[in-house]
Amino acid sequence: MSDQTPISLSKDLESPAQLRRRQLLLVAIPCLVSAVIGGVLFAWEPWVDRSPFVARTFALSGSALFNDEGDGTCHPKEGAEKRKLLGEDKQVLATGSASEGIVLSALYGDAASMCLYYTEYRKVPAGEDVYYETQEQKFYTEDGKLSPSSELTESSLRRSFTEVTKEYVHFKEPDN
User: Fold this and answer.
1) What confidence tens digit (pLDDT) does each residue in 46-70 have?
2) Is 156 exposed, middle or buried (0-12, 13-18, 19+ CB in 10 A)?
3) Residue range 77-87: mean pLDDT, rounded
4) For residues 15 and 84, is the Cβ–Cβ distance under 8 A?
5) What residue segments make up the domains of the chain, in order of their start?
6) Window from 2-11, 69-78, 108-117, 151-160 with minimum mean pLDDT
7) From residue 163, how far is each of 50, 92, 141, 158, 160 by CA, in Å?
8) Phi, psi of 13 (to 5 degrees)
9) Which are the contacts of 102, defined by CB distance < 8 A and separation ≥ 6?
10) Taking Cα atoms as reference points, which of 102, 85, 106 lies closest to residue 94?
11) What torsion, rounded to 10 degrees, do the Cα atoms 26, 32, 35, 40 define?
């Protein structure tokens, strides 16, 4: 008789606990990887266009607040005043000054003879959820509270002067 013991070529069966652990790992690892990738994409937001753009805010001023150049153009009397464009975290993104505009004709209804001018901000980073415009001169409400800075969207900052002037055609003042 030989001293050889039989060798089994079949795989030993795993216990139910080992089988369950292996199944859990096969499910947990892809879920964990997906969560990490999702978190990175959520924080990075690669689909948001963050390239700088030229932003413009528009304002309408009555005759007491602007200088009429006599050729259909005007500029606000506080034209040298610096304005700031802030991001959603209230950090300054860009500064600008009110520039010249146009004196609106009778075609513009109740806005006729008012000055429509804009403030231009260069190299404003895109992709903010909201922007705020502030100015050095502070305005107060009727009850004496400081008027809040205006809240703007990126699409409103990207409008052209032509688009805005079309909005004022046949303008009507709200009834008090």
Assistant:
1) 766 678 889 999 888 888 888 888 8
2) middle
3) 76
4) no
5) 15-47, 53-167
6) 2-11
7) 23, 27, 30, 10, 5
8) -75, 140
9) 72, 73, 74, 115, 116, 117, 165
10) 85
11) -130
